[in-house]
């Protein structure tokens, strides 16, 4: 087989920090593409970083292919959102008669799931909030708090994260999005890795 097996949890021999995400998933509301990895520390598991994620809400975390997600990245899902039309205190979760005041999903300020594109790099200790879409090829700086969606091939950073710059010209971004190399067969990707890594868009367009 050319390249690492995308269905193996630990693709680097002797290293249990770098984990392919897809084979570690146990929750039906998390979906990850082949070769996307999480760089863990202190025995973390990727799903531990996906917080307040409850199946009855129905929100999903969807991650594309070939994403690089650094240690400490946290995904805050819709279950973290409290009512804001009165008290924000979640009385119902404590029971003892308070459970009769459980809000309906329509009462909660739900924003939707999180969608991460392909070939996205998320820096260490970043936080991604519910309702956010991160476009293909984007870069999220270390310790950023991403509260709004990020355009493809854009670098963002800060709290809240704001655009720093685009990685390429608009014309080149359009070319990358049209090529979609991450959807190629792995044999073709492996054959042309140098062009992908070096950003040789003209060579890639000719394939």
Automatic annotation (TrEMBL):
Name by which UniProt lists this protein: Virginiamycin A acetyltransferase
GO biological process: response to antibiotic
Family affiliation: Belongs to the transferase hexapeptide repeat family.
Transmembrane feature ranges: none
PANTHER family linked: ACETYLTRANSFERASE, ACETYLTRANSFERASE RV3034C-RELATED
Species in which this protein is naturally found: Seinonella peptonophila
Origin: domain of life: Bacteria
Keywords: Acyltransferase, Antibiotic resistance, Repeat, Transferase
């Amino acid at each position: 087989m050319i390249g690492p097996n995308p269905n193996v949890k630990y693709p680097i021999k002797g290293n249990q920090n770098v984990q392919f995400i897809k084979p570690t998933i146990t929750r039906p509301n998390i979906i990850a593409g082949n070769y996307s990895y999480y760089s863990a520390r202190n025995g973390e598991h990727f799903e531990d970083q996906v917080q307040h994620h409850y199946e009855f809400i129905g929100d999903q975390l969807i991650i594309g292919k070939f994403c690089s997600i650094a240690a400490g990245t946290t995904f805050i899902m819709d279950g973290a959102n409290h009512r804001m039309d009165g008290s924000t205190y979640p009385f119902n979760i404590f029971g003892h008669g308070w459970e009769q005041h459980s809000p309906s999903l329509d009462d909660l300020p739900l924003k939707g799931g999180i969608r991460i594109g392909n070939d996205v790099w998320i820096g260490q200790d970043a936080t991604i909030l519910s309702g956010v879409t991160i476009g293909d090829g984007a870069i999220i700086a270390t310790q950023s708090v991403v509260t709004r969606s990020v355009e493809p091939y854009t670098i963002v950073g800060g709290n809240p994260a704001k655009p720093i710059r685009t990685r390429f010209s608009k014309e080149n971004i359009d070319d990358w999005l049209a090529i979609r190399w991450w959807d190629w067969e792995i044999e073709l990707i492996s054959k042309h890795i140098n062009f992908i890594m070096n950003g040789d868009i003209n060579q890639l367009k000719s394939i």
